[in-house]
Amino acid sequence: MKRVRIFVAYDGTNYCGWQIQPNGITIEEKLNKALHKLTGEDIRIIGASRTDSGVHALGNVAIFDTESQIPPERFSYALNQRLPEDIVVMKSDEVPQDWHPRYQDNISKTYEYHIYNAEVPNPLKTRYCTFVSFPMDIEAMRKGAEYLVGEHDFVSFCNIRTNAQDTVRTVYDLTIEQKDGEIVIRVTGNGFLYNMVRIIAGVLIRVGRGFYTPEKVKEILEAKVHTSEGVTAPPNGLVLVKIDYN
C-alpha cells in the first residue's frame, strides 16, 4: 500500500464543486471513478480544498491510497486518459503514509478573483471572470484591501453556514492588478473560511464602484457580523491558484 499525491487543475463550470454530493456531478466523483477504472480498487480521494460549485482550480491537491503497481509519478498520465478534458492531473508523486493535504504545518493557499471590467461583456471571459460594466476605482480597492492583511477574526467575511469554530485566519498578501480590462484580486493566506475569498471580492467590488469607502472594509471586519447576504461575488471569477507546503 502506498499513498499518492496528485495536483489537480479543473474548469469548475460544469461541476457542483469538489466534494461528492447527491444532487450533481463533482470533481471528486470524476477522480474516484477514473481511479477505479485504472486500478480496479474502490478508492476515495481526500482533497486539500473543497471548492464550491462553479469555482476553478489550477493547483488543488489530493491524496489516495493504492496497492497498484503503477509508479506514483505515472498516475498523472494514466488518469488524464480517463478524465474529461476539463479536469487535468498536472503531477503525481508518492508521499509518506501519514501525510495529509489538510493537516500540515505552514500551509498557504493562493486564490485569484478575476473581474472583467468593460462596457460590454467578452464571451471569451464569461466562464472565468465576473463582468462589471461600471468604472472601478482600483486605488480605492487597494486601500480597502490593506485592512485585511494580517491576522484577523474573519467572521464578517464568511458564509453564515460555515461550521468553523475558529474564524481567525492570517492573510499574508492581498494585491489588486489591472491589465487589458481585467482586474485580478490575488490573496494568499494560511487558510480561508467558507466563501471568504468571494466575500472579500464582493466587498472590494463595492469599494471599487463607490458604494463603500475603503474605510468601510475595516468597519465590516471589526463588526464581526456575517455580511455574506448580497455581497458574495459569483463563483465563476474564483480560481484556486496553488497550495504551498513549506
* Helix-residue proportion: 10-25%
Mean residue pLDDT: 95
What is the number of E strands?
10
Categorize the overall geometry. Answer: globular
Number of helices: 5
Strand content: 25-35%
Residue windows where pLDDT falls under 50 for at least 5 positions: none
Would you write up a description of this structure?
This protein has about 250 residues and is α+β, with helices and mostly antiparallel strands. The two termini are about 25 Å apart. The mean pLDDT is about 95.
Describe how the helices and strands are arranged:
Layout: E1 2-10, H1 27-39, E2 46-47, E3 56-66, H2 75-80, E4 87-95, E5 107-117, E6 130-132, H3 138-146, E7 150-153, E8 168-179, E9 182-189, H4 196-209, H5 214-223, E10 238-245
Helix pairs in contact: 3-4, 3-5
Structural descriptors:
246 residues, alpha+beta, 5 helices, 10 strands, 21% helix, globular
Q: Concise description?
A:
21% of the residues lie in helices and 31% in strands.
